[in-house]
Amino acid sequence: MTPHAWLLLGLYLLVLLLLAKPLGVYLAAVVEGRAAWAARVGGHIEAGIYRLCGVHPADGMGWLSYGLALLLFNGLGLLATYTLQRLQLWLPLNPQQLGNVSPDSAFNTAISFVSNTNWQGYGGETTMSYLTQMLALTVQNFLSAATGIVVAVALMRGFARHSVREIGNAWVDLTRITLYVLLPLAVVVAVLLVGQGVIQNLSPYQEATTVQATVYDAPKLDATGQPVKDVQGNPVTAAVTLPTQTLAMGPVASQEAIKMLGTNGGGFFNANSAHPYENPTPLTNLLEMLAILLIPAALCHTFGRLVGDARQGWAVLAAMTVLFVVAAMAVMSFEQQGNPTFAALGVDQAAGNLEGKELRFGSADSALFAAVTTAASCGAVNAMHDSFTPLGGMVPLVLMQLGEVVFGGVGSGLYGMLVFAIMAVFISGLMIGRTPEYLGKKIEVYEMKMMAIAILVTPLLVLSGTAVAVMTTSGRAGILNPGAHGFSEVLYAFTSAANNNGSAFAGLSANTPFYNVLLGIAMWLGRFGIIVPVLAMAGSLAAKKRLGETSGSLPTHGPLFVTLLIGTVLLVGLLNYVPALALGPVIEHLLLWAGR
Amino acid sequence: MKTLIRPAVTLFILLSLITGLIYPLLVTGISQLLLPDQAAGSLIEREGKLIGSRLIGQNFTDPKYFWGRPSATGPYPYNAAASGGSNLGPLNPALKDVVAARVQALRNADPGNTQPAPVDLVTASGSGLDPHISPAAADYQVARVARARGLPPETVRDAVAQQTQGRQWGILGEVRVNVLELNLALDHLPLTKNP
Hints:
- Chain B: It is a single-pass membrane protein.
- The structure holds two protein chains of two kinds.
- Helices cover 62% and strands 5% of the residues of chain A.
- By secondary structure, chain A is mainly alpha-helical.
- In chain A, the strands form two sheets. Chain A has a two-stranded antiparallel sheet. Chain A has a two-stranded antiparallel sheet with strand order 4-5.
- Chain A is globular and about 85 Å long.
- In chain A, 61% of the residues are buried.
- Chain B is mostly helical.
- Chain B has two domains: 1-40; 42-187, no CATH class.
- In chain B, a hairpin with a 2-residue loop joins strand 1 (43-46) and strand 2.
- In chain B, helix 4 crosses helix 5 (153-162).
């Protein structure tokens, strides 16, 4: 790592950890309904919403109602997102007259944004109208984030409460998180982004007359619009001179802000955060990276507050931070190395591997962004992961495969990590011969069953999905790069979908009915296949008595437990995925450096 | 279940209106009021005509202009209505071939230059719209541009230095030169002689 890379990583962590504590404390106040300042500003709006909805905020829900409420709410999101895409040509705010999205692509995108994955089979500026971007995609950026956070809060309440059935009121939690946390943060971040050059307008695309005209070869078309072919059957091309450049416009900053804060990651433009209008300066890059991990880090403190022991939150945060720092250092080092196949070509690679990267970010700021976005289940990219060095691209893959628990998605990262914490106390309970308990709650058969489902659902989706895709013609047809890297593209796609990340080895042509449907299913099951068992666990934990600490209890706040937790996460992740990783990035790395 | 339907539908509609219409329109309003230039895309106009954006790179192939990063957008480079990278993997033979061709093109344009080509001049950017090159990549092209314009290399080097931006806050990002702004500055040098 270069000194610049060390400095950047240090600055990033410092600012992140400084901001996370106060936000976490505030979040705890919001979900406990005692954020006085927020209630003074938005209290009447909140009360009005409850009146219109017929909700009594004091009424609690059992886990089953809570879960059904979330499924229903997200089901409506699915329907609305799908419908808006399918009808956008006939709706307002579509200055480019972009056509209705195809059924399979709209299905995939609807699940993708509802499940907080934000996988994108389409290119934003060539597919989505401004209305779709705002009323379908931005809305889901908020609501899927709120859904993740309220599930984590419900699980925290499961630990914090005892001998009760209720784990909170889903409507109240969703409303408060959206109004008092996500909205104000998004407004601030959006305006800061515009200040640096992120665009925010509803204008049609702008036509600029460029300094030098572009000359390129375009296929010749006959009168009916079919490509003309020569006698050998090759398409005939003709040089075309283009004196202009069309600049895509749109309400970008408002979407960019919540795309990061909600760990959504779906870009307004095809190039996502590599696009200068989404991420124009190194400062916006820092701001976007901070926005990604801010709420996941803050929720650790919220957890500590709610269970009445701040140290429990610090322990989880410490485990996440250690895993993250190691991963970030790895990507930064690998990307700095450059590409050995260029050595003989007379290329000066002091700047590292720059294929697919923006010069303003260089290899260090791009590599850190890649680690941040895949540690969180964000999936925004400021560089093309497909063109990373083999090991530089493997680290993001591994971060996702660990189950998106290294900070992870907003809410989903924390509940995922708490599932691993339960597994860690179970394993250590076996080792020292005591009944496992976590935060005063006995971990019994029911919790273990739910834990097993939550941990196994994603590897099952990833590995079987990858297997199906590489065994079928329609699956293999999407691959861009030959050899081991092509396998990595497919593995990355299913890893990203099932773990609700949304970044891609984007060479894979995934906007086909095959991938749209298969990845859509993986995203939905990867989201709600975990949320439902986690809520069931929350309900079961809330009903239990809270045991006092004895000399026989395993403390779950010290370095010993942090080490155990890290060990558990790594062990499960590695056992599941080592063979697949060996077939993809590991082989590619060996071939690359052997000069093949 | 039945008791859940009314709150689900109503809450979904209300929150959709707040986050999907009020919020983006509020941000648009604030931006248009306080930061109209940035919100509109940092556009550059000359004599009332829109000629591009400070943030979006343009395609340059003329020897008298500094060239930017290679762009992988289709069907032509620097297509700002369809951004994207090449997505070529590090071991893909197509990547090696295209990089070799770019090195050759640089050599052909300036046969006397025997330095190794800076990596940013031969690899495609992520967006295909990267407006910047490194100072090394600018330096590599100074002799060619000076010759094509009939200018002393020092004048061109001065123009590069003027357009060079340091790391933001001294820590963030990379030192970089905005290619479009540099070329515009060169076109407006008083001594410019069009070949």
